[in-house]
Write a structure and sequence with these properties.
Blueprint (H helix, E strand, L loop, with lengths): L1 E10 L3 E4 H5 L6 H8 L3 E4 L6 H16 L8 E5 L10 H9 L5 E5 L5 H14 L6 E8 L9 H4 L4 E11 L3 E9 L7 E2 L11 H5 L6 E2 L1 H23 L8 E4 L4 H11 L10 H4 L4 H13 L8 E8 L3 E8 L2
Parallel strand pairs: 4-5, 4-6, 11-12
Antiparallel strand pairs: 1-7, 2-3, 6-7, 8-13, 9-10, 12-13
The structure holds coenzyme A (COA).
The site of coenzyme A (COA) has 21 residues, from helix 2, helix 6, helix 8 and strand 12.
């Protein structure tokens, strides 16, 4: 038996913040944001909603689609960089809210590549014989770590969650996962405050160290190269060629990065899944939500090969070929 996606579902908060809304907060314009990023609007979770709450909403839909109950789940992994708390893990909160059994629960932190990292971990644990059905969630409340006075970053991010149930499939499933990282570039994208390097103090808060810091321009160049390289490596691992790919499901950081990646892979426009205009960059949740939306779209059929590819803070990167089961 192979391991495949047997259920999927996503959740995004109701509140929509448009580029026009942002024009009232920082010195920006709908025109700048649209042309430079492709983003038109993003979703904002209310103050009382944490990442586990969004993850649970997505998970319930994924379980329903799989025809399973929380009792059938053997493992929960949440990919996130905006956990409910430093500890316990957000996966533990999800388990409690779902009333799942006392199964293994943990988080994966790999920024925007987190969902692909989590897929690899879950696939490995299932195929080692340890577990049968795993719930893998990519969920973020990035607006909680966004500096709403910094126009370089606040226009980019949004909140949401995507969940898949992985389990045994007769044919297809996750054919390959390729992962990589380069910690020497951590200064390009990080949140410096609150950890053991700079524990939270009045000083760190006054300096805004609890917000995302990003060197967008430098990241951009790495993003295009690493997304394309990762895609090729995942294809090679799966023994496939780019002509075998039906749809590319890229991390949604910037539409210019997405189109440049598509060009490098020589794929047609209609093969590229894009939802950045609706949600912005949701980090670990971006690929998860995009995968769920594409699996629910009419164009995607059993036997199609989907190529997920992501890149993010760390730096981290990864790609996965999934044959729709
Ligand atoms: N509205 C208006 N102007 C803005 C702006 C905004 N929201 N944000 C930045 N600018 C300005 C800058 O201040 C700069 O002005 P200057 O030339 O007077 O200094 C100008 O626009 C160009 O800034 P630059 O950073 O060079 O723009 P860019 O074309 O590189 O686009 C990003 C910026 C962030 C959209 C782009 O670099 C990007 O998407 N990078 C990758 C980010 C990423 O992938 N992050 C997550 C990784 S998962």
């Amino acid at each position: 038996m192979d391991t495949g996606v047997i259920g999927w579902g996503f959740y995004v908060p109701d509140e929509v913040r448009t580029n026009k809304d942002l024009e009232k907060i920082v010195d920006t314009s709908d025109e700048w944001i649209t042309t430079r990023t492709g983003i038109k609007e993003r979703r904002i979770a209310p103050p009382e909603m944490a990442v586990s709450d969004m993850g649970v909403k997505a998970a319930k839909k994924a379980l329903k689609k799989a025809g399973l109950t929380p009792f059938d789940i053997d493992l929960i992994i949440v990919a996130t960089i905006t956990p409910d708390m430093f500890f316990p893990s957000t996966a533990c909160f999800v388990q409690a809210k779902l009333k799942a059994r006392n199964i293994a629960c943990f988080d994966v932190s790999a920024a925007c590549s987190g969902f692909i990292y989590a897929l690899k971990v879950a696939k490995g644990l299932i195929e080692s014989g340890s577990y049968r059905n795993a719930l893998v969630i990519g969920a973020e409340k990035l607006t909680a770590i966004t500096d709403w006075q910094d126009r370089n970053t606040c226009v980019l991010f949004g909140d949401g969650a995507g969940a898949v149930v992985l389990g045994p499939v007769k044919k297809g499933g996750i054919k390959s996962v390729y992962l990589g990282a380069d910690g020497s570039k951590s200064e390009l994208l990080n949140m410096p405050g609150g950890g053991s390097r700079n524990p939270a103090t009045h000083e760190t808060v006054n300096q805004g160290m609890h917000y995302v810091k990003m060197k967008g321009n430098e990241l951009f160049k790495f993003a295009v190269r690493l997304m394309a390289e990762s895609a090729y490596k995942a294809l090679r691992k799966a023994g496939l060629d780019k002509t075998d790919i039906k749809y590319l499901i890229p991390h949604q950081a910037n539409s210019r990065i997405i189109w440049a990646t598509a060009r490098k892979l020589d794929l047609e426009k209609k093969q590229i899944f894009v939802n950045i205009h609706k949600y912005g960059n949701m980090s670990s949740a971006s690929c998860a939500v995009a995968l769920c939306e594409s699996l629910s779209s009419k164009g995607v059929k059993k036997g199609d090969n989907l190529l997920l590819v992501a890149f993010g803070g760390g730096l981290t990167w990864g790609a996965s070929v999934i044959e729709v089961s």
